[in-house]
Amino acid sequence: MNSVCLGKDTALTLGRSQQLSVALMGVNLTMDACRRPGAAVCKLTCAELKLGIKDGLNACCYICIFSFTVNKFEVKCLISLFYNLVGDVTERQGVVVGLDRNAFRNILHVTFGMTDDMIMDRVFRGFDKDNDGCVSVSEWVYGLSVFLRGTLEEKMKYCFEVFDLNGDGFISKEEMVHMLKNSLLKQPSEEDPDEGIKDLVEITLKKMDHDHDGKLSFPDYEAAVREEALLLEAFGPCLPDPKSQKEFEAQVFKDPNEFGEV
């Protein structure tokens, strides 16, 4: 069974024992068929969830699920998969079950073929929006909606957040060197590999640093990616490759008749 962690309450899991539903994509989606017995979700209106005011939700753990780019059926499938992954963990009122760092990294490696430890850690932090050390069901669906169906704008914001290692709003030369050392293939060479990395960083800055301040802001990164889409993952693979994505979707988004219409 995968590792799990019990963390802070989030927008989707609020420990209510009433009829379970949540407003997804403008319609009420009944969750009974998708969740394990005993799991509970408070019924929220769109306005309540967006503002994060129900049951004392704070700004840190609030996630607007109405921006999902996956459709209603796919949301159901992702929620069902989440609870299969966390396994049979007893839920307590006010406590959310989620995927901890090790379990999440294992999914990234086995399912999406990611191998860079540092990038996988950053992807985990990108999913774990409330920084409670585990990925909750809402964070899981929101993150995968960007992974699988995200717009270019969403993917740029996500990738920049992954590459901004210290969270200061910039990708520095030092961060570029660190990431490229980890992501580039290790090949025997007579040249000093560190010098080669530094040269590559200088070339990258010439291409992407539009305001010439020696670091990449999001506007720098965005402009470069819009000019050349291959620069989206310039510092390491942090999105599923097409083959892994296709295989994941074939396994998870199957048998529409399994879920009845709401």
UniProtKB/TrEMBL annotation:
Name of this chain's protein: Calaxin
Keywords, ordered alphabetically: Calcium, Metal-binding, Repeat
Record-linked PANTHER family: CALAXIN, CALCIUM BINDING PROTEINS
Ranges where the EF-hand domain occurs: 115-150, 151-186, 196-231
Protein source organism: Sus scrofa
A Pfam family recorded for this sequence: EF-hand_5
High-level lineage: Eukaryota, Metazoa, Chordata, Craniata, Vertebrata
GO molecular function, one term: calcium ion binding
